[in-house]
Design goal:
Elements lengths: L15 E8 L7 H5 L4 H8 L4 H22 L8 E3 L5 E3 L6 E7 L2 E7 L4 E7 L6 H5 L5 H9 L2 H22 L12 E2 L6 E2 L15 E5 L5 E7 L5 E7 L1
Parallel strand pairs: 1-11
Antiparallel strand pairs: 1-5, 2-3, 4-5, 6-10, 7-8, 9-10
Length: 241
């Protein structure tokens, strides 16, 4: 376990990807102290959550993001400034050397940094109490649905969230959120490289299919994935807590 991002065992980012995994329930301390590190906008967003648990997870996640960013940028956590695109994707305001992304599900959070390209990450708890086939029809391609249907019922939830996290990681890498200018069912995430389901690709779209995908399991009962322009020479996993 790594408790301090200043730990000398942390690898530098050089044509690589650093993934941090944290259980926010293990992030001890007074939530007020974590809030003090956030900007007014971040506090406003935290206070908009209906439930305290969700607000606390957001605050702890942002605290973690600032602490880790400060280490890699060699800056003070309070001095880290973020820009946001029109869909809410953050980027470092005055530093274009690194790209990052953050995702959380329940009490788990994953944070990724790289020097390769824009990157997206997604984590999801494997909820078995859903109609995975019905939900999948609205977001998965025909070939993805064929695979999901063929998976035994006892394994279907895991396969569903494996596909879901790969697709959402791509969306987050682009920075669109779910305001995608293309039907999600046209995007195929079954292979390591993203592809389009149809044979006719619209070259007027503001992105191309040359994105790479990598799936992993950060914790039992969780699925996660990253998406970036090319797979790195090294992917490092670190635990905070």
């Amino acid at each position: 376990m790594i408790n301090d991002p200043k730990d000398s065992s942390i690898s530098p980012i050089q044509n690589s990807v650093q993934i941090w995994i944290a259980d926010l329930e293990n992030l001890m301390g007074d939530i007020i102290n974590y809030r003090e590190l956030l900007t007014e906008d971040e506090i406003y967003r935290a206070d908009r959550y209906k439930f305290y648990r969700d607000s606390a997870c957001f605050i702890k996640g942002r605290y973690l993001m600032r602490m880790l960013s400060a280490h890699y940028l060699d800056s003070k956590p309070s001095s880290i400034q973020f820009d946001y695109n029109s869909f809410g994707k953050p980027s470092f305001q005055n530093d274009l050397r690194l790209f990052f992304n953050l995702s959380h599900s329940r009490n788990m959070v994953v944070f990724v940094l790289t020097d390769i390209s824009e990157i997206g990450i997604d984590i999801e708890y494997v909820d078995k109490n859903l109609d995975h086939l019905d939900i999948g029809k609205s977001v998965f391609s025909d070939s993805e649905m064929d695979l999901l249907t063929a998976v035994p019922g006892s394994k279907r939830a895991e396969k569903f969230f494996e596909l879901w996290t790969r697709k959402e990681a791509f969306i987050k890498a682009l920075g669109y959120g779910f305001s995608m200018p293309v039907d999600l069912k046209e995007i195929n995430v079954l292979s390591q490289q993203l592809a389009f389901e149809s044979r006719t690709y619209d070259h007027n779209l503001p992105f191309d299919p040359s994105w790479m995908l990598y799936s992993f399991e950060p914790e039992p009962n969780y699925k996660a994935a990253i998406c970036l322009r090319e797979l790195p020479g090294k992917i490092s996993f670190n635990n905070w807590g």
